[in-house]
Amino acid sequence: MNYLVVGLGNIGAEYAGTRHNMGFMILDAWAQASNVLFRTERYGDVAEVSFKGRHFTLLKPSTYMNLSGNAVRYWLQKLNLPLENLVVISDDLNLPFGTLRMRTSGSAGGHNGLENITELLESDQWVRIRVGIGNDFSRGGQVDYVLGKLSEEEKEQLADLAQRVIQGIKDLSTIGPQRAMNFINIKPKKDAENA
Predict the structure, then answer these.
(1) Residue 194: what pLDDT?
(2) In this structure, what CATH number is given to the domain that contains residue 107?
(3) Is 111 noted as a catalytic residue in this protein?
């Protein structure tokens, strides 16, 4: 079984480590943990990892966020994969930091990258994992917040967050989306304790 796993973000040093690049950071963590390197290919940086007979092509699009669909469409066709074998990781302002939501379909929720992918694939029937980045900004401060760097506290949580997403994708490939969602769509421990 082959999968295309896309981490959304913006290319360029000025965007490195920003909340909007959560998808890039998670794929970087997966590649590092798997001892593989990204190579630059058409429409993005690509790496390959395997797990229990499953093969994952990791893609960090080089198209900028609002044109991510070009890269996704190209690589889905190149790898000859069905839509259900596509997983897209994106940041989400509407979820508290560290909260994860896996869905097998659905709206873009105002996310330009997801919107462009849905538009170019002419379908929303693919797996998306939204990574909560919170919305701790004042009125009119959304762009600065999203394109702002992670706080020290958020950076400390990043390794655990990345591990949870990676495990969720591995679960998706082995036990299926419904059971994988049961594991990944739980509140982080910190939030659960405060609830």
Answers:
(1) 46
(2) 3.40.50.1470
(3) no
Query: With helix as H, strand as E and coil as C, how does 137-177 read?
Result: CCCCCHHHHHCCECCHHHHHHHHHHHHHHHHHHHHHHHHCH
Element (H, E) at 47: strand 44-51
Identify the active-site residue in 5, 7, 18, 20: 20
Chain CA centroid to CA 107, Å: 15
Give the confidence band of 105 by pLDDT, cuts at 50, 70, 90: very high
Contacts of 95 (CB under 8 A, 6+ apart): 101, 130, 131, 132, 133, 134
Q: What is the pLDDT of residue 186?
A: 74
Domain, as residue range, for 152: 2-194
Number of structural domains the chain divides into: 1
Report H helices in the chain.
Answer: 22-33, 68-79, 112-121, 142-146, 152-175, 177-184, 189-194
Average pLDDT of the chain to the nearest whole number: 91
User: Chain centroid to CA 159: how far?
Assistant: 14
